[in-house]
Amino acid sequence: MKNCYLTTASKVVLIAFILQLISPMLAETIVLRNGTPLQLSLFQTISSETATVGQRVTFKLSHDVKVKGKILIPAGANATGEIVDVESKGMIGKPGTLSIQIKSIQAVDGSNIPLSASKVVKGKDKSGTAIIVTLILCIFGLMMTGDDASLQNGSVIEAYTIGDVEIEIE
To answer: What is the CATH number of the domain that holds 131?
Structure first.
């Protein structure tokens, strides 16, 4: 005898299909405004001794970014940056330098949000000491180098969103 009632499996498939159809109607779009500040922490230590231009750098968001009580970017989200300039330490006390630019972070809906921030760090300049040593001990002062520039794990950089971004919250 045929049963005209839907099987349990059929009911589950039908409910999943209906939810799929109406879920876009349940989602809310919230705008993250241009210039929203984000506090980012460096996830690794980088140094002018080993860094290379173009190298990717990872940061973590320190606090949730919320609008209207909704989390748009959760704390711990990865932000990406890039090393844009590296200068090695040099003779006569010249310090190393390191320049980083923050590029983007990912929102809860998977969209990439462009960010604006940069950081330049310099090692300790020892050129004055090198000159004094050169005057007193001749050539040895010329061989003295400055320090490498470094940014330690956990260093904080403030970044800002670029442009208004619409983010879908479910």
So the answer is: 2.40.128.260
pLDDT per position as a tens digit, 3-53: 555 577 777 777 777 767 665 556 788 889 999 999 999 988 898 888 999
Report yes or no on 84 lying in a domain.
yes
- Among 52, 48, 51, smallest CA distance to 90 is for 48
More confident site: 149 or 93:
149
In this structure, is residue 23 part of a structural domain?
no
Number of domains the chain is built from: 1
Query: Residue 59: which H helix or E strand, with range?
Result: strand 56-61
Contact 42, 152 (CB under 8 A): yes
* pTM more than 0.90: no
pLDDT digits (tens, 9 = 90+) for 70-125: 999 999 999 999 999 988 765 555 667 888 999 999 999 989 999 999 887 765 55
Q: Which of 30, 54, 63, 45 is nearest to 158 (CA)?
A: 63
- What mean pLDDT value characterizes the chain? 80
Specify if 116 maps to a domain.
yes
Kindly state the tokens that stand for 94: 């010249």
Give the bridge partners for 166, in sequence order.
31
Range of the domain at 81: 30-169
> Per the domain annotation, does 77 fall within a domain?
yes
What gap in Å lies between CA 134 and CA 138, rounded to an integer? 4
